[in-house]
Write a structure and sequence with these properties.
Blueprint (H helix, E strand, L loop, with lengths): L11 H16 L12 E6 L5 H12 L3 E5 L13 H9 L4 E6 L4 H8 L4 E6 L5 H15 L5 E6 L6 H10 L5 E6 L8 H11 L3 E4 L2 H4 L5 E4 L10 H7 L18 E3 L20 H22 L4
Parallel strand pairs: 1-2, 1-3, 3-4, 5-6, 5-8, 6-7, 8-9
The chain binds phosphoric acid mono(formamide)ester.
Length: 307
């Protein structure tokens, strides 16, 4: 049974096909209104979410399907000690596809091995968030018109920010990509991402703590929130949380066609004064996420022979 746990579970060809389907959904939504009629998506969210859960649910409704949901760990038998594997086996009896978010790295993989229906990882701890990356890829494509020849600045919590790890993995597979990794010393990209992805593939990257010096060369600036929920102590979080705050002043040397991205939720990382800047793309990412999740649900249900 095909599941998507990591963005590399999808080939570049498949990513491009998903973007093509998403663009077709945007242009011809009526074609897709009933394709998942009588099919059910189970959203199992053991960690808070606004965008990912609601966009999965909106995606399934817009495909004509239905949704059953666990919206918090406390509201399910996980609170009584039920394992992820038993939960996945149980939900396989009720639904056709699962989207799961869990605070533990590897939980979605465990679920996919136990389930008899496709499982989509909607975020596992500080590890991966492949469907956020699908949203990010469609945003890059729609803003830039191409996926190659880009300098991408990633800024903020690059250690715990799972969207960053998935995006590095995905964009490293396109031609002539360069990364500028901007973070405090304590929140640098984990060495396994640098070793297994960037160094292994010979992708050029620069690590720096200085956003403003890096700004003029960036085609994309991907801001991230410092992930309070992954810190071991509050003192470190408070010291690091406002390391980077993007203001109009800091954009004065930026390219005119810079794409400013953020997976959201935002805390302080981007001043609201930037929201009306035509280069701000973060609410476009939210909408693109729904279309890419529609495309992914369709793909996995087709491959499973369910539709
Ligand atoms: N980007 C993202 O995953 O947002 P939520 O945590 O609100 O789902």
């Amino acid at each position: 049974m095909r599941s998507v746990i990591d963005i590399v579970d999808l080939s570049v060809k498949e990513l491009d096909e998903l973007m093509k389907t998403a663009c077709d959904i945007i242009e011809n939504p009526e074609k897709y209104q009933e394709v998942c009629k009588h099919k059910k998506l189970a959203t199992l969210f053991f960690e808070p979410s606004t965008r990912t859960r609601l966009s999965f649910e909106a995606a399934m409704y817009e495909l004509g399907g239905n949704v059953i949901s666990v919206s918090s760990a406390g509201a399910s038998s996980a609170a009584k000690g039920e394992s992820v594997a038993d939960t996945a086996k149980t939900v396989s009896c009720y639904a056709d596809i699962i989207a799961m978010r869990h605070p533990k790295e590897g939980a979605a993989l465990v679920a996919s091995r136990a389930a008899t229906i496709p499982v989509i990882n909607a975020g596992d701890g500080g590890h991966n968030h492949p469907t956020q990356t699908l949203a990010d890829l469609l945003t890059i494509y729609r803003e830039k018109g191409h996926m190659d020849n880009l300098t991408i600045g990633l800024c903020g919590d690059l250690k715990f920010g799972r969207t960053v790890h998935s995006l590095i993995n995905a964009m490293s597979r396109y031609d002539n990509i360069r990364f500028v990794l901007i973070s405090p010393e304590e929140l640098k990209v984990p060495s396994y991402v640098k070793k297994d992805v960037l160094q292994k593939k010979g992708i050029p990257y620069l690590q720096t703590t200085d956003l403003e010096t890096a700004m003029p060369e960036l085609d994309i600036l991907y801001m991230t929130r410092v992930q309070r929920e992954r810190f071991f102590n509050e003192e470190d979080y408070l010291r690091l949380k406002d390391s980077y705050i993007l203001t109009p002043q800091k954009l004065r040397n930026a390219k005119d066609d810079l794409a400013i991205m953020h997976p959201l939720p935002r805390v302080n990382e981007i001043s609201i004064a930037i929201d009306d800047d035509p280069r701000a793309c973060y609410f476009k990412q939210v909408l693109n996420g729904k279309y890419m999740r529609m495309a992914l649900i369709l793909k996995l249900l087709k491959e499973a022979g369910t539709i």
